Amino acid sequence: MAITALHSAATGMRAMDEQLSVIANNLANSNTTAFKGSRVNFEDLFYEVRRQPGALNSLGERTSTGLFVGLGTRISNTQMDMQTGTPEPTGQPLDLAIAGEGFFKVQTFEGIGEGEAYTRAGNFIANENGDLVLGTWGGPLLDPRITMPNGTDMNTVTITEDGFITAEVDGADQEIGQIQLFRFPNPYGLSMKGGNLFVETEASGTPIEGSPRELGFGGLIQRALETSNVDAVKELVKMIRTQRSFELNSQSIKAADENLQVVSQLRR
Asked: DSSP letters along 136-193, please?
């Protein structure tokens, strides 16, 4: 019946509308530091089974196929693209990009991840106490904490690939600390909280701490930031395909409605 077609087409329009929202967010963040784009995964809905495969036909033989009428589609999940973005030189001594796997850990307020969050963005600055904080609206502290001593010449700060920080303090070279990284058994299970932050979930697994360039961790690139991994051209192509799919589903609704009108006029 046309009612089934109406329902199926409506689910398609709803799914395309959600996909368009995800694409729009990807494009909006194409210049966001270390942003990870998302894709929409679809799955078909239940099927109305009108005849099972293997049923007996009029000759007493089993049919090789059945008769199924689908009830549409839905979005099963959105999946992050964890591919590393391109490092872009900035010239700033506290800017860091991770070349490979790993996240920086930062301290947040209790409303986000029970006070802990993770980020790929490495645009760090020193606050009034010399502590390294993420250069975002909330300014969360790097964890484990790194503090630049009074008298540090910021132009002499050197951060090695394995995270060791040295600088000239009051005219003498001094080792300040080592930056640690964290990784997850399932990074796709992290919860996105905005502000370039992710938080741990049961799906992501427990974070594993380690030093840069250790087994399973990437190295650090000083004076550079990881760019967004969104490919704007591909997103525009997906946007056009989504629009066309939305229009096709709307045409299916129009056709089903016309069929219902024909049925309703039979008794006249």
From this structure: SSS-PEEES--BPPTTEEEEEEEE-TT-EEEEEETTEEEEEEE--EEE-S-GGGPEEE
Q: What is the mean pLDDT of residues 183-197?
A: 95
Mean pLDDT of 144-171: 94
Cα–Cα–Cα angle for 181, 185, 189, rounded to 5 degrees:
100
The Cα 265–Cα 5 span in angstroms is 19
Q: Mean pLDDT over all residues of the chain?
A: 92
All structural domains of the chain with their residue ranges: 2-81+230-264, 87-226
Nearest-angstrom CA–CA distance, 133 and 130: 9
Gap between the Cα atoms of 54 and 67, Å rounded: 11
The rounded distance, in Å, linking the Cα atoms of 134 and 122 is 7
The type of residue at 148 is M
Residue 4 phi, psi dihedral angles, 5° rounding: -65, -40
The tens digit of pLDDT for each residue in 41-77 reads: 999 998 888 888 888 877 888 888 888 888 999 999 9
Question: Which residues make beta-bridge pairs with 264?
Answer: none
Cβ neighbours of residue 261 under 8 Å, at least 6 residues apart? Answer: none
